[in-house]
Amino acid sequence: MSVKTIVQQQHSSTVDNAATHLTGLKTPPEGWLRKVRSALGMSGTEVAKKLGVTRARVTKAEHAELTGGITLKSMQAIAEAMGCRFVYAVIPPSGRIEDIIIAQARKKALSLVGTTSTHMALENQKLPDDKIAQEVERLTREIAQERPSDFWSDK
Length: 155
Prior knowledge:
Blueprint: H1 3-22, H2 32-40, H3 44-51, H4 55-67, H5 72-81, H6 97-122, H7 129-146
Helix pairs in contact: 3-4, 6-7
């Protein structure tokens, strides 16, 4: 096994572990900043004072979180002002990096098999559907393992 493969597996493990712990975690309707502030019983004025800004700025930040317009730096600063830690993660929807890789490999395999099947059909050599499905699965595994240089391209 190559060093590149080992490193990639370590990265996948880190992401999968984070996804496992964050599964089901949803942003509250009012946003995390306001939810945590309310849970702590802190007023917007108290948070603003710790940050050295106005109450209006805290309110603006809470609204910006809901619209996606807040910066990571602001989220971190406000979290720290409330005695919390800001955590940011990008995780796969299924919780596993491997699922994204397999889906891409399957897309590539389907494209290859589809092209080949079309050519074979033109020559009256079409394979049965079960054989085509087996070939898609075989190619999917092979492509996922090898990950050619054009793996992430949609061509």
